[in-house]
Amino acid sequence: MKHIHISLFLGLVVLFASCKKDKSNYDYKPNEQITVTGIETVYNVVSEKDKLVITPTITSNDTDAEFDYMWGIYETNVQGYAPVLDTIAKTKDLNYFIKQPAKAWVLVYRVTNKKTKYAKYTNVTINVGTEFTRGWYVLKDDGTKSDLDLFLSSSATALTEVKENVYSLINGVKLNGKARMINLFSSYKSDVTGIIANTKALFMVSDKDVSAVNVNTMKQIKNMNTLFFERPSTIAPNSAFCASSAYYLINAGQVYSIGTNTQNTGVFGGRKLKDALNSPYYISDYYYTATYGDPCLFDDLNSTFVTLANGSGTTLTNMTDVAGTAMPAVNNNKKALFMGFKSATYIPAPVYAYTTIGFGIFQDKTNSALKILTQMDLDKLKLKLTNDTLKTSDKIYNATMHTLLDADENMIYFVLNNQIWSRNLSNKFEQLQYSPPAGEVVSFIRHKKYAVVADAAFNYNYVMVGTQSGADYKVRMFTKSSGSLSATPALTLTGKGTVRDVMYMSPSVSEYSYSNTY
Amino acid sequence: MIAVVMITMASCKKDQYYLYNDIARIQFGPDIKLIYNANSALADTLKPFTFYYDAPEVTQDTVFFDIYAIGGVSKTDRPFTLEQEQLPNANNAVPGKHYIAFSDPKVSKLYVIKAGTVHTKVPVIVLRDPSLKTTTPVLKLNVVADASFQLGERKTLWRKIEITDRLSRPAAWTDSFSTYYYGAYSTVKHAFMISVTGQKWDQVFMSQLAIDLQDYYLSVVKTALINYNNAHPGDSLKDEKGQLVIFP
Q: How far is B107 from chain A (nearest CA, A)?
């Protein structure tokens, strides 16, 4: 009998459990749909100057819908702390004075049906700029001091205003030395905002100093006295550039870096060693990197291709030979006259890495009359070199400046006798492309292109030719067709001094926007 | 069926964890900043200490550990009790010679969890005995049950100090630090690093060393070692065991 009672009791427990209230949803109405229109995908605004005015239209298939609104904003490209969504309005329309520092932000618009709590989110990019964050920067010098001119623009071909000598205007002094190059480090660590955070920094390099400049304010963040844990005894900067996993500064032919995969404070570490014997080396001015790989460097002293593997470590790594290479990567008895980036190819799974092609012009150290045009196929540390011995009758044989067409036609441009020539790298055909007017001396040549979708109005693909005439410079920017220059430049910049480098800057430009090469 | 029900019920027995509303217990723990970091649960179990960097007139110093009461706070101060454990086959520290005994009135009053708190620093006064110039005695201290506290979790009831007056491996020179940065520890290597960089490379310095500075100093000492070895052909720098000093 007892067993029967116990069984009945347990049975009742099970039955009670089955009496759980049914909370299933038997509402067969169609899913609610809230539609938001009238909001662009990207807004470009200037901090402390522009208002962001947006008047969206809201519709819903719920005829009884009543809405709550929320506008929030959060920053991108953040490292070291978590970005916070800052609520800036709770109204349907937005009328907001931009105060955020210059960089890319994300604006979030949330529309919530108060009755159903269903919410629709819309995210748009807000490119916040300052008077310094959009335009053509021209690095120039007067022979002993360097400065920047900024050409504000309304499109890739239209200028609106010129700000001369913006660097010295803001910092009170020009950069000491003859200008060499400018490069953007878009995630450079600095404490300009009070905490160590990513800062868009323009690195100005002269032959006597380097200035890391905050692009938002044009104020110097650090120079050669403060960029290192230990200031090099010899100050003779060669270049500053970004590559995968590290930022590089070459000074007096020696390599210094900041590892970007680990915590850092924007200060360059110790001089890299060549080998376990601390053998001497001297890195050429010429280098290239596709930014997403280790840089291809050339040690002129030892005639050896080297890199800093994975952007880390204390010692440089020699490149290794690939079967069929025309000359060894190590101790090849050559001197670099030019080296540059041509193209990159992504190799998918399981490699997940890029191979790159560069070209260089090398001169034999024993037979100085021997010059070769070399194609460099680089797969991480493996280098295949393909040589084309130049004839003394080739125009490029005596060229003084070079630029490769970055991932475009298989051509190299060069300067010979103050004229701009091209050479087809496939069939060796050489052609005069442009002769500057009499009295103008070519000081700079570079092919650059900018193809960021979010900044379409400012995209360009130019061969830039800088010339000097007396105290004045001109930078003519030519479009090209099938590798040949247009008859007239699409854009011309003019100013005082001698041009050494040109870069278009915008809130969308990052260290990945341009291939990194001298 | 009854048996099945009983077994089922028995399986519902409460697990033997110590809860915050348990009776008063005491145990060591990591620095208070790290108590919510599971990886730091066993941090600071061993603290090497050296008088090497101190001026000759310094005769004693203090090593601190963190100790925690569980079971809630009390309205009154609660003393806790420490005792030394003699380790077999070891050079055990001698009270009065290498440290001030825990029962000594000069320090025993310091071993108290104050009213309204559950954490305090445990000071261990170490003494600079001349023997420390040539030896490194070890002091293992245990917390023991008393009128105020029962014991906490078993693995957190002890701490160790290695006391010396010689250059010694700081706790921050971990195995990971050896593997990925500066290689195997030796006092010769340690002294070389101090000489080259002008830094102490003691626990305080190393525990606060940022990664980029660590990389920088590695390149400095590596370069200096190469230059030293180049300047001493056939007589490269060797450690106290006769092994070549190497920075990977």
A: 42
Return all residues near A369 (Cβ < 8 A) that are at least 6 apart.
Answer: A392
Residue type, B59: T
Report the residue of chain A nearest B246, measured CA to CA.
A276
Q: Which residues of A touch B228 (CB under 8 A)?
A: none
Beta-bridged to residue A298, according to DSSP, are A305
Q: In whole angstroms, what is the distance from residue B73 CA to residue B70 CA?
A: 8
- Residue range A58-105, pLDDT digits in tens: 999 888 899 999 999 998 877 667 788 999 999 999 999 998 887 789
Domain coverage including residue A94: 34-128
Residue A157 lies in a domain: no
| Location of each CATH 2.60.40.1740 domain in chain B | 25-164
Which residues, 6 or more positions from A11, have their beta carbon under 8 angstroms from its beta carbon? none
Rounded distance, CA A483 to CA B20, Å? 76
Architecture category of domain B25-164 in CATH: Sandwich (2.60)
The DSSP call for residue A485 is E
Instruction: Name the residue in chain B with its Cα closest to that of A272.
Output: B219
Cβ separation of A258 and B212 shorter than 8 Å?
A: yes
**Are B226 and A277 within 8 A, CB to CB?**
yes
Q: Does B222 touch chain A (CB under 8 A)?
A: yes
Tell whether A66 is covered by a domain.
yes
Instruction: Answer yes or no: pTM beyond 0.80.
Output: no
Amino acid of residue A486? S
Whether A82 maps to a domain, the answer reads yes
Q: Per residue, what are the HEC states of A161-198?
A: EEECCHHHHHHCCCEECCEEEEEEEEEEEECCCCCCEE
A244 Cβ neighbours under 8 A, 6+ residues apart: A289, A291, A292, A293, A294, A310, A311
Model pLDDT for residues B19-74, shown as the tens digit of each residue = 556 789 999 998 888 877 777 767 778 888 999 988 999 999 999 999 999 888 89
CATH number at residue A66: 2.60.40.10
> Would you call A270 and B215 a contact, using CB atoms and an 8 Å cutoff?
yes
What are the residues facing A159 on neighbouring strands?
A: A153
What does the block give as tokens for A9? 């009791």
Q: What Å distances lie between residue A272 and A255, A263, B133, CA to CA? A: 5, 19, 38
Q: C-alpha A464: how far from its chain's center?
A: 18
Q: Which of A222, A233, A262, A229 is nearest to A246 (CA)?
A: A262
Number of domains in chain A: 1
Residue environment code for A72-111, b if the CB has 16+ CB neighbours within 10 A, otherwise e? bbbbeeeeeeeeeeeebbeebebebebebbbbbbebbbbb
Q: How far apart are CA A197 and CA A313, in angstroms?
A: 24
Contacts of A266 (CB under 8 A, 6+ apart): A188, A189, A190, A196, A199, A201, A212, A221, A222, A258
Interface test with B, best of A4, A188, A229, A254 (most B CBs within 10 A): A229
Q: Is residue A467 part of a domain?
A: no
How far CA A359 is from CA of A172, A306, B163, B216, in Å, comes to 40, 15, 62, 33
What span, in angstroms and rounded, lies between the C-alpha atoms of B131 and B123? Answer: 22
Instruction: Flag whether pLDDT at B100 surpasses 60.
Output: yes
